[in-house]
């Protein structure tokens, strides 16, 4: 069988999908299993931020190459997942991914952005694609600010996102997230995959370890959390390291 037969099907849902919560539009794409149209399966879903950087080799800072990772995973028998890629807002990216007010970066529209995903995008995807719609099969993820807003989404909506893929989250810009993590009350089993590079910034790894310690403490207190922390000691804040981590995180979150 040719390797190309395992490639995910990349479908642009809409070039300018309306986001009324932000009075904006975004390109949204779906990466479907290679056999989606020849099967009758229903699939878990992962909503990923920064869609421009996920499978475009011409992206300015490089890409995660998730299409190639999904192809390799499919060859190993791990093809049953749908990825929804949501493009960021370019100049509005920081404000839209910021969960709280910041004196330098603005009001923080992160809550509006997440409400868009929950109230409009997820229902649309569940209506138009064969998805598994329950908590256990709905995940969210991203890197940097995309990781931060994904963490916030999971903490703020414990009945919606059963899986979180949090790569190199920009915790420095939203220190309130630590308090929110401490008060997090998962309603069902939450799976959280946290990744950090060891050479991202002076405070990045210490911040990630602080986040880890909060989750570990909650697990000791018998909160229903399954948590994994992955560190690449030589990792910097760049797409090529998130590219390497992506298939490992997918396997742990969805197929473990």
From TrEMBL:
One of its GO terms (molecular function) is hydrolase activity. The keyword Hydrolase applies. Keywords: Hydrolase. It comes from the Bacteria. Pfam families: Esterase. PANTHER family: ENTEROCHELIN ESTERASE-RELATED, FERRI-BACILLIBACTIN ESTERASE BESA. This is Alpha/beta hydrolase.
